Amino acid sequence: MTVLGLIFANSENPLGELTNKRTKSAVPFGGRYRQIDFTLSNFSNSGIRRIGIISRSNYQSLMAHIGSGEEWDLELQEGGLEFISPYSMGNYGVSGNVEALNFALDYLKYGGNEDYIIMAGANVLCNINLAKVLQAHIASGKDITIVTKSGLADGVKKQELAVKLDEDGQVIDMAVDYPAPADYAISTGIYVVSKDILRHRVQEAAARSLYNFHRDIVLRLYQAGQMTVNAYQFGGVALYNTSVAEYFQNSMAILDKDVRHDLFTGNHPIFTKVRDRVPSYYGENCEIDNCTVADGCFLEGKVRHSVLFRQVSVAEGAEVEDCVIMNDTVVGENCYLKNVILDKNVTVRPGTKLIGTPSCPIVIKRGDTV
Amino acid sequence: MYFQKKRCIAMLLAGGQGSRLKVLTENTAKPAVPFGGKYRIIDFPLSNCVNSGIDTVGILTQYQPLELNEYIGNGQPWGLNKTHCCAQVLPPYARSKKSEWYKGTANAIYQNIPFIERFDPEYVLILSGDHIYKMDYAAMINFHAASGADCTIAVRDVPLEEASRFGIMNTNPDGTIYEFEEKPKQPKSTNASMGIYVFNWKVLREFLMADEADPNSENDFGKNIIPNLLNSGHKLVAYTFEGYWKDVGTIDSLWEANMELLGKDPAFNIRGGPNSTIYARNNAMPSSYIDEEAKTVNCFVAEGSEVYGTVRHSILSTGCYVGKNAIVEDSVVMPGTVIESDAIVRHAILGENSKVCRGAVVGGAFGPNEKKKISVTSKGAVVEANAVLQPGDML
Known about the structure:
The longest helix of chain A has 15 residues, at about 95-110. In chain A, the strands form five sheets. In chain A, strands 1, 4, 5, 6, 8, 9, 10, 11 and 12 form a nine-stranded mixed β-sheet that branches. In chain A, strands 15, 16, 18, 19, 21, 23, 25 and 26 form an eight-stranded parallel β-sheet that branches. Chain A has helices at about 35-45, 60-65, 95-110, 130-140, 195-205, 215-225, 245-255, 255-265; strands spanning about 5-10, 30, 35, 50-55, 80-85, 115-120, 125, 145-150, 160-165, 170-180, 185-195, 230-235, 240, 280, 285-290, 290-295, 300, 300-305, 305-310, 315, 320-325, 330, 335-340, 345-350, 355, 360-365. In chain A, helix 3 (about 95-110) packs across helix 5. Chain A has eight helices and 26 strands. Chain A has about 375 residues and is an alpha/beta fold. By secondary structure, chain B is an alpha/beta fold. Helices cover about 20% and strands about 30% of the residues of chain B. Chain B has eight helices and 31 strands. In chain B, strands 5-6-4-1-7-12-9-13 form an eight-stranded mixed β-sheet. Chain B has a six-stranded parallel β-sheet with strand order 15-18-21-24-27-30, with no helix packed on it. In chain B, strand 2 (about 35) and strand 3 (about 40) form a beta hairpin. In chain B, helix 6 (about 200-215) packs across helix 7. The N and C termini of chain B lie far apart (about 50 Å). Classes of the chains: A alpha/beta (about 375), B alpha/beta (about 400). The interface between A and B is large, with 37 and 37 residues. Strand 16 (about 290-295) of chain A pairs antiparallel with strand 15 (about 290) of chain B.
């Protein structure tokens, strides 16, 4: 069975300053990665060899990051990666997933002879074997499979798509944009569907100016009894970055051993663009507690409960607590930082104090000096 | 196939056994021995080539080439996998008339004359795969071209008392070499050869052919080719290199070179310098994790490691684990090695994927003037729980 992967690189819920100049899937995460690395690696590790990336806007840094796809073993003679951008779709802007899919139909039609499509977003971070999901989809005999995650709905946060499952895991209710209660499983944004069904349903919806994939295709057809829905209950860690506060909280979540090992350890590595940085250097007087540290850092100060990306330097006398510090950022002497997200290439002048809160961390824009 | 003419190509001698590295080179060629947390020794000459604009490198392998071949692959990590840039692994091969191993360094180049000829180079740079240094070969090649010499040999000034351990180039005031002495008992000068040569290819080719025809030759650059060039009146000049350079051919020197990376102002600054990135094959490893109870003092920690204990004045390579209350001091921990809780490792080199089980003790502490005995574990070795590996012992 051959499978085509489709990645929606843009999504609603931008991450404030972090998505000012980059598409959400290009937002750095976890010390070494961009959000899209998880989706790309899941596809690559599952043997999917042709992948379309649907990106609407601000995709320069995404394209720079992905390049030829070499790092994900996706630089191939046949297949590989293709960007499906608004320009190549013959339009200057795309308002909904269905419209984007409709424009991508040519790619689906002429590209290859895959039987199935696996669609995924780039803002739910997990390490999942999609080959197993495909097998389960085929075995279920249903029209579409939604990969779901239980235990995350709280009755407050609006979920893009939530389903209620019976004891046998069968879908008995579905809701879209709904603050689903705790007994609902929520979508991970990963869907498996046959190419024929997808093409047919997308054309049909687009012809009626229906643009929301979840509401106008999955929910509408499910309720009308025209589409059978299978749920694949994913048991691993799934981190949803739909707001800056969630991004911050999920960044800290990888300090937990179980979360970290679930995401990164094992036979399915998460690949990312290689940067030839030296190993990180820990100075004579540094104190590093409960941190993840990428390569190339130069640490002389105190850092607690934080995520340090590549080539970060923390000078002597500086104290950093509960922070996310991205590539090439410099924290000067005697600074005090708590609950701060420092984007790439930020310079924090000696003696600066910045204090945010966990639910409202201070975000310093890429390249700024504070 | 179309080959671009090259001004200079490099031939990297990577076939040596490195027997003085003992258990570390039991199953690995010396150039593939890990260094500095995420590198292998061969990354240094290879990266120097790339940083010097040399984009065609022949890598001569012979001893235990499996890991080295796998590591070099198609040369992609160094950007040497393009149409006109290559890192070509050159093992000895069977021929129609006679087949043989590389008999010596000169014979290794001789057997690969057809490879070199394809690029029709003016100059050939001969390198070895067992030194740690950053050097701009382009400056040396330009120096060679300007000098009008047939061969330029890189030298460094060594203390007189150590000179008898090296191949010494005795030079005239204008830098021309009049004599080469291998490990002289009474050295006349302190210009030690670094094993880096630039030759005019036409001249080298002629001497390689003559050397091959001489049944008494050892087919070695230092013993045969250089003396023969001198004796026949060719111009050889010395090129003085002043940066850091270290032969890591012994356990002690390999340990020392790793230790010399440490400190705020290290003897060898692996981070510093424009256009001097050392490239390496990267594995997809996550960031390292440093636990609340961990202590990391004056050390390098490469990606993918987890530290729960103490690491002081040491190199912790990619994908290592240091358990709770474990202590690692003055040591080189090679990739994938596990040091369990309560274990103590001092003055040691732990080979790749080796394991020091709970409560075991490897190596010892030494006074400032005492000779340090380095304990070594081989690749995949296991020091059992509560066992002791004495200072200087190998497993």
